[in-house]
Amino acid sequence: MGRLTTIRDGALEATVDSQGAQLMSLALEGREYLWQGDPAWWPRRAPVLFPTVGVLAGDEATSAQGPVRLKRHGIARLYDHEVVAEGPSSVTYRLASSPETREAYPFDFRLEMTYSLAAGALSQRFRVTNVGSVDLPFSLGGHPAFNVPVPGAGDAFEDYALRFERAWTCASPAIDADGLYDFSRMLPVVEDADALPMSHGLFERHLTITLADVPGSRVTLAGPAGRGVEVTFEGFPYLGVWSAEGGAPFVAIEPWCGLASAHDEDGSLEGKRGIVTLEPGGAFERTFSVRPF
C-alpha cells in the first residue's frame, strides 16, 4: 500500500491509494459501496487498466518497437503513482515511463489519473500523453467492483439487476480458459430487455460479460431497497461486467477502451480490437463517473 488520500464533497467520500492509483473506498453517508478486497474472492478493488485491458495471448504481443510482455491488465496497477495535485475534493496522480516499464512495454508515455467528487458522483479521468518520438498504441479502462448487496440494504445478490436506458438485445463473445476472446461464438445476454438480473450462475456461464455500444453509455446496478450505483461512461466503447466464482458478493462494472486478445487477431499490439494510437505529442482523455445512491 502506498499513500492514501481521502477526498470529500458533502456526504460523499472517496479514498485513493497512490499504489496503482487505485480507488480504495467510495462511501455515501458512511455506507461503503466499493468492494473492499476480501482475498477469499478477489483481493483488488478498482485497479487502473493500462496499457492493456485483459490478457495478451501468452502474455506477449509484437509491436513496431519490439516485443511487448504484459500480464493481465498491464502495468499501471503495479507502480506507485506520484501525487501531482491535491485538493479537498480531487486528487491527481502521474505515472511516467521508465527503463523498467520499457522492458515490458517499449514505449514512452505519461499517464495521469484524476479522481474528483461533485454533484453526488465520483469522476475518474484518464489522460494519456505520448511523450515519445513514435506512435503510442495502448488500451485503458477502469475496474471498480461494488458491494452486492450494498451494506445495510437488506437485499440478496439475486435481488439486483443491471439496468439499461432502454430495451435492447446484445450478446457477449465467448472467453476461453486462457482469457482470450472467441468472436465466432457470441453468447446471448439480453434479449429485448432493459435489465439483466444478477445471479452467481450468470458469471459461471459467462466468466466476463462484454458489452459493446451500451445504450446511452450508462447503466444502473441496484436492488429492490433502492440502493446501488449508476455508472456513466461516454467515450468507452466496451463495458465489462464481472464477478468472481464461488458466490462472491460483488459485481465489477468496467468501462473499457480496448479488449483482451482474441483468436482471430494477428498477435500484434497495434492489431488488437479497440487499440488507441497516439501520435508523438498527442494526448487522449476519457472519464467515467460513479454515482452511489
Describe the structure.
With 293 residues, the protein is mainly beta. Helices cover 4% and strands 46% of the residues. It is built from 2 helices and 22 strands. The chain has helices spanning 99-104, 200-206; strands at residues 4-9, 12-17, 22-28, 31-32, 60-61, 68-69, 82-86, 90-96, 110-118, 121-129, 136-138, 140-141, 145-147, 161-175, 181-197, 208-212, 218-222, 228-232, 238-242, 250-257, 276-278, 283-292. It has a 9-stranded antiparallel sheet, with no helix packed on it. Strands 12, 13, 16, 19 and 20 form a 5-stranded antiparallel sheet that branches. A 4-stranded antiparallel sheet has the order 1-2-3-4, with no helix packed on it. The chain is globular, with a radius of gyration of 18 Å. It starts with a strand and ends with a strand. The relative contact order is 0.19.
Sum up the structure in keywords.
293 residues, mainly beta, 9-stranded antiparallel sheet, 5-stranded antiparallel sheet
Helix-strand blueprint:
Elements lengths: L3 E6 L2 E6 L4 E7 L2 E2 L27 E2 L6 E2 L12 E5 L3 E7 L2 H6 L5 E9 L2 E9 L6 E3 L1 E2 L3 E3 L13 E15 L5 E17 L2 H7 L1 E5 L5 E5 L5 E5 L5 E5 L7 E8 L18 E3 L4 E10 L1
Antiparallel strand pairs: 1-2, 2-3, 3-4, 5-6, 7-8, 8-9, 9-10, 10-22, 11-21, 12-20, 13-20, 14-15, 14-17, 16-19, 17-18, 18-22, 19-20
